[in-house]
Amino acid sequence: MNSLQLDKRLDTTEQVVEEIMRIHRSLPPRPGLDEVEAATSLIQNVEKEDRAWLEAIANQRKPSDVPGELFSILQEMKKGLVQFKSKEQIREAAKLLDLETVHSLFDDFIQRASDCISSPSNGSAPPSRLPPRPPPTSLYLNEKTPARPKEMVSRDDSFVSKAKPSLYGDGFVAPPRTPQVVDSTLTAGKFAGGNDGDKLSLIKLASLIEVSSKKATKELNLQNKLSEQVEWLPDSIGKLSTLTSLDLSENHIVVLPNTIGGLSSLTNLDLRSNRITHLPESIGELINLVSLNLSGNQLSSLPSSFSRLLQLEELNLSCNNLPVLPESIGSLGNLKKLDVETNDIEEIPYSIGGCSSLTELRADYNKLKALPEAIGKITTLEVLSVRYNNIRQLPTTMSSLSSLKELDVSFNELESVPESLCFATALVKLNVGNNFADMVSLPRSIGNLEMLEELDISNNQIRVLPESFRMLTKLRVFRAQENPLQVPPREVAEKGAQAVVQYMNDLVEARNAKSLVVKPKKSWVQMCFFSKSNKKKQSNMEIV
């Protein structure tokens, strides 16, 4: 209230005019029309969003080791927090609407003051005007949905052209307000307040959505741009029907609204590094989605509607809490890259064979005990990585993986590598190192993998390499540390891949040469003994 300066002397018209201008300028910047519209929409939809939050809390599963009463207390506290934050958002929206109301009221005062200044100075009364609109009841700290005059949220700016010419610089009249239409191609930081480091509040986000909707925006990047208080998206997100790319990564989002399904043109959705616990069924309405990144969240299941994302080519589900993959994953016939590493998955469903376009499958850091035989149906597969699991053996159907170039099954419990794998002749990189069972040998026909360039067998119990190893002429990286190698000797293995290949080649050639040496003829003593023996047999036959 210090800005009132009640003790200031105002003896002349100029001093009064200057004081009126000072008070007018002391107001915070006027919110944009889209911000006003967004704040109004937020207050009107707060109950619906509260219901979505409470439903999400109710759907959370109690861990088996947590007492029911303790988990119930946690849920009640979460519900209380939702209600508190909801009221906090209402207060923020109401404060913005109050500021718009004050600006509108001051506009009337400025216009009346302008009429006084422009009146003839002959003492005649100033032209009569309608009294200013009385200020509505304050909305600040009001938890009820405010009733606001339509003109406050109207997009009609015809009042601007009807205003009198501006005299604010030379005389007095405040410049007419022009709608603040923000270019949605700017960064979200600039929209928030001019600095890239600024974060969007829920109202600012809702305002940006309104602007983007009216401008038919195609790409929206909000990576790490939302304030920590923004844990859900406003329902108005569904208005962005022209959007093709949306990046909401590295924020604090917990819940997605059902209206997310309204983004009918979306092809790229990045939600990585948030705190999303479940996905709405409406996610399946994004039928044009090509790339979906959900890594680094808290998902424990996927909705059944996932099977409708038939155009999906890249799906990243890494770093979540998924115990299983749904059978519906096999419906994604266009899927090319699937990343499910760092979850709690114990089994990949047999339906994975339906992903007939898959080229890359990463399932590291899970609890897999085996791979399904159906993996052999994915003849397009080029990269298969299942490090840090509990796999004991590989399926024999891997012989059908004619396109496989990289296979990493390190840090598992493999006891052996099947001979059938050696029919996957396109292999370039093979890692079977660091298995915790006693892997004592490699397949005899490993030489069939003539394209192999990198081979890791480190930290196993292999003593002898198969003779066909000599055929790996393209091998340039060979890791065999911590194996009790005897053939080749350790000092040869330490010289590198081609030294090992050459050693095995020389060894085989030496053995072959030795086996081809002609056996010596019988000595004259042996021949004489043989001759006497035959004569004796013949004499016995004559006596008979």
UniProtKB/TrEMBL annotation:
Disease resistance R13L4/SHOC-2-like LRR domain segment(s): 308-420
UniProt keywords, alphabetically: Leucine-rich repeat, Repeat
Biased composition regions of type Pro residues, renumbered to the chain: 128-137
Disulfide bond listed as a keyword: no
Basic and acidic residues: bias regions: 145-156
Pfam family for this entry, one: LRR_14
Keyword Repeat attributed: yes
Protein name as annotated: Disease resistance R13L4/SHOC-2-like LRR domain-containing protein
